[in-house]
Amino acid sequence: MIPVSQVWPEELARLYRQKGYWRGETFGSMLRERAQAHPERIALVEGETRWSYAELDRRADLLAAGFLAEGLKPGDRVIVHLPNVLAFFPVVFGLFRAGILPVYALPAHRITEIEHFARSSEAVGYVIADHQDGFDYRELATELCQRVPAVAHVFVAGEAGPFRALDDVSRAGETAPAPATGPQPSDVAFMQISGGSTGLSKLIPRTHDDYIYTLRASAEICGLDGDNVFLVVLPMAHNYPMSSPGVLGALYAGSRIVLCPSPSPEVAFPLIERERADMVSLVPPLLLVWLDAAEQTTHDLSSLKVMQVGGAKLIPEVARRVRPLLGVQLQQVFGMAEGLVNYTRLDDDDETMIGTQGRPISPDDEIRLVDDQDRDVPAGEPGNLLTRGPYTIRGYHNNPTANARSFTEDGFYRTGDIVRLTERGYLVVQGRAGDHINRGGEKISAEEVEDHLLAHPGVFDAAVVSMPDEYLGERSCAFIIARGEKPRAVDLKRWIRERGLAAFKVPDQIVFVDKFAATAAGKISRKELRASLRAMLAEQE
Ligand code: J2J
């Protein structure tokens, strides 16, 4: 079994158990208990298909046995690269039950990212949909298997082509033995992908114990119970729609999940009306689209009660429009796949709901705000947010260099966010210290994109920075010093796409410059350079 790369110290682990945060549940047992308590209740809706809790439980069992019969072993890693389709659920619960670890990729990820996940997690398997929105994931799988031969198993939801259909794996599971022993609650259950502020994404190991705690607490904070209908519009492999409270929080609470094939109001609004959905999570740019559409819609959205908005900063002017236009209770969520999640509470006053990003889930989430020398800042002042607690990781998987940078010696995670604390202990996000771009909730590492730009023969130097965007909050701008004849901006954008990166990493804007600023001492650091370019862009606004 894969070890937790850096575990909580024993005395803290004991405390978290004593306090009832970690209750010794696993994902497998969690689903089984729900299926036994209310077998006929509908768990999942996709189009005309409805699966009860018992049905999901049965399918997860078949896949658990099937995956092992295919030759996968407990502790193996399997990349799960699925859009919002029903198959996602039996796949991940099947893997959980077999003790195999899903590594979650986003639907937008392409070969370069997937290859990196495969290598860094030493994955032996890859689960895909056949195609989605005109993109054929089987072609990506073919390329992945060539580049990383260790990926010996490809499973497909739908038409398998040269690979193995999940339906056949399920069939094999009918006659194969069930997993002999399941995973332990303290084992790593899966790996999430970091937004990646420096360079490539890192792997985030989460245990059954710590993650299920966030599900239980989030369901409670968000008021989820067996009567709720949660509409999922964001890609549910992302930590936010997965767990805050997300689809797994909804299953924890015994709610119903409705899969929405597209986040656009034309698709989502009729579904809300038809399924009487009462909860949905959005990112700020999507909220803007929904607010505009709500002004005109003829669909009945009156079933909606609570709406989470998070992933990127929601400005108060927009937050204020939510209740009057959509008639729902707004709940701000400020979280991260590494752990810490903050929510405004449903009984908070309007100003707190509109003007803050909430407070931590757990009384034992420790928060420190420090200056660049790690000294505590005075009360009420903004500072770099450090955190540790019962569900914040102590280290990335197998990455000592990143761990030395991202964690303090006493185990605090350096979030890279600059926040301020209100007197009542609510967090207000002020910005980011790190060099990532938060493009409407999608995180882009400046360094990663720069490295790909630098590989272009017409690029001598490149610096990627965020620039303000009315709709996305931030978008990306690449400053380029050409080598010889200037390449065309469209060619550079195509270059990034052709390098096999997610489309959201393609720079929104490209600006050619003759040189970058230097200090008297010579070269300035990348960080300073990006800061000065950001300042220049802000001045132009
Ligand atoms: C400003 N910045 C925010 C917010 C996240 C719940 C919600 C979000 C995520 C997530 C998540 C923000 N205002 N409301 O995993 O469980 C920025 C911060 C943070 C980074 C984490 C969840 N909510 N952010 O977005 O791992 O900069 O998780 O450190 O993708 O998003 O990104 P990610």
Automatic annotation (TrEMBL):
Q: Which Pfam families match?
A: AMP-binding, AMP-binding_C
Print the keywords alphabetically. Ligase
Q: Name the family the entry cites.
A: Belongs to the ATP-dependent AMP-binding enzyme family.
State the protein's name.
(2,3-dihydroxybenzoyl)adenylate synthase
Domain spans labelled AMP-dependent synthetase/ligase: 31-397
What sequence ranges are listed for the domain AMP-binding enzyme C-terminal? 448-523
Q: Which residues form a coiled coil?
A: none
What are the recorded GO MF terms, alphabetically?
A: 2,3-dihydroxybenzoate--[aryl-carrier protein] ligase
Annotated SUPFAM superfamilies: Acetyl-CoA synthetase-like
The family database entries (InterPro entries) matched by this protein are listed as: AMP-bd_C, AMP-bd_C_sf, AMP-binding_CS, AMP-dep_synth/lig_dom, ATP-dep_AMP-bd_enzyme, DHB_AMP_lig
Pathway field of the UniProt record reads: Siderophore biosynthesis
Q: Which GO terms describe its biological process?
A: siderophore biosynthetic process
